[in-house]
Design goal:
It is a single chain. The chain is an alpha+beta fold and 448 residues long. It is built from ten helices and eight strands. The protein has one domain: Outer membrane efflux proteins (OEP) (Up-down Bundle). Helices cover 68% and strands 13% of the residues. A hairpin with a 6-residue loop joins strand 7 and strand 8. Helix 9 packs antiparallel against helix 10. The protein is elongated and about 155 Å long.
């Protein structure tokens, strides 16, 4: 009865674990690229930078529009702001004459010796100004903002290329390790078969116990290699899941290595490819931005002309009184010429630096493209050599098995042949992975 309950409990636990297992997600390399371009955080931030640059451009455009401001002031002073009386008259004779008149008629007429004004009131004003000329700063500022939008868009594209390449690298690295697992499976089957044969041979006195020990060492070595490969797959899947926004435990990669095309089909002229790269356009924009900054600095030393109008309303005096006016203002900087001259000199130096950087980076990109092509050719040569080595290793293992079964060679020679076969298969997998990664790198450099 206890055994039955225990069995039922195991079944229930198994069903529960199966129910909680995430759905399998089968992904090709293109599927992973699409998911990474959609879900990658760094790429999302680069797209937000484009939006921010667009808002900066919109902000710069508002400099063309009139500026309208309104002010309202309400006040109540402890003492009047303006007091006017006989004592304020500077002419002594006139002041004395007014004193005499005030003494004779002031009380009768109800006049005061002094009068106070502006103790409380409300002042409202609306003003609009429109720049007609600002030394080209508004126009060049808008051009600079437009350059910023294009630069941000190019940087976002470069980030897409980076994410795409990183995704492909992780994908093919995982596929390569999975193929190495298959190679270890095949080697383990050979070792298991050899272990069983040795057990019978030792009992029959046809083999030494040390031979079985050698097989056990090889099996332990294979088990350790399997652990390393499996751990590597887990870590790489976690990294791939971080890029794609998926569950690494549910991910199954469907593409396999093989069926490569010779690199000659992908060759491009390096000079033409460099001219079309995002980085080249970014260098051009950097130089253009420095020139626009120089023009904006020059605009600070040029006259500025604006027109405007205002309307006001106040209750400072006894009667509320509206008013309106139009005006034009010409501003000519005088004392900032020396300061502007030094600023222009710095911008001239920055422009020269940008030109030097463009030449330098263009040469570096040319060398980078050539190096990528050389790497692609070398990895193709590595594939052809690995395929030949694998064919030789398979033939060598067949011969060594026949010789061992005939008693012509020791067990160590057979184990060595099996090890060589494993290394040959691993080398072919590594070379194919390297070729695909190098191909992706080269194609990104030449296809823009």
């Amino acid at each position: 009865m206890k055994t039955l309950r225990f069995t039922v409990l195991l079944i229930l636990l198994s069903l529960s674990a199966w129910a909680q297992k995430p759905d399998t997600l089968r992904l090709s390399v293109q599927d992973c690229i699409d998911l990474a371009l959609q879900n990658n955080i760094a790429l999302q931030n680069s797209r937000l930078e484009v939006e921010k640059a667009q808002d900066t451009k919109r902000e710069a455009f508002t400099e063309y529009l009139p500026k309208v401001s309104a002010q309202v002031l309400a006040f109540d002073a402890m003492n009047p702001l303006v007091t006017v009386g006989i004592d304020d008259i500077g002419n002594a004779q006139l002041r004395q004459m007014l004193y005499n008149l005030y003494a004779q008629y002031g009380a009768m007429l109800g006049l005061e010796k002094s009068y106070s004004y502006v103790q409380n009131g409300i002042v409202a004003n609306v003003m609009a100004t429109e720049p007609l000329y600002a030394g080209g700063r508004i126009r060049n500022g808008n051009r600079l903002a437009k350059v910023g939008v294009e630069a941000a868009a190019i940087q976002a594209k470069m980030k897409e290329d980076e994410v795409r390449l990183q995704t492909e690298q992780l994908y093919w690295q995982i596929v390569t390790l999975q193929e190495k697992i298959l190679t270890l499976d095949q080697l383990d089957r050979l070792l298991d078969t050899l272990d069983k044969d040795l057990s019978g041979a030792i009992e029959a006195g046809l083999a030494m116990p040390t031979d079985k020990y050698k097989v056990t060492v090889k099996k332990n070595e294979s088990q350790l290699n399997r652990k390393k490969v499996e751990d590597g797959i887990i870590l790489l899947k976690m990294a791939l899941a971080h890029l794609t926004g998926t569950d690494w435990q549910a991910t199954v990669l469907t593409d396999t290595l093989g069926a490569e095309t010779a690199p000659t089909a992908y060759f491009h002229n390096a000079v033409e490819a460099v001219a079309q790269r995002h980085e080249s356009r970014l260098l051009d924009l950097s130089l253009q931005a420095e020139k626009l900054k120089k023009k904006m600095t020059l605009g600070e030393a040029l006259p500025a002309l604006m027109v405007g109008g205002s309307a006001s309303y106040h209750t400072i005096f006894d009667e509320a009184k509206p008013n309106a006016m139009v005006f034009a203002m010409l501003q000519v900087p005088i004392t900032d010429w020396h300061k502007t001259a030094y600023k222009l000199k710095k911008h001239h130096i920055d422009t020269e630096i940008a030109e030097n950087n463009r030449r330098d980076f263009t040469e570096q990109m040319k060398m980078q493209t050539d190096q990528a092509w050389f790497n692609l050719e070398q990895s193709w040569l590595r594939i052809t050599m690995a395929m030949t080595a694998l064919s030789d290793a398979e033939a060598n293992l067949k011969i060594e098995q026949d010789y061992y079964e005939a008693g012509l060679i020791p067990l160590s020679d057979l184990l060595e042949a099996q090890t060589l076969l494993k290394h040959s298969r691993d080398e072919l997998s590594d070379s194919r992975m390297e070729y695909r990664i190098n191909l992706s790198t080269y194609r990104q450099l030449v296809n823009h």
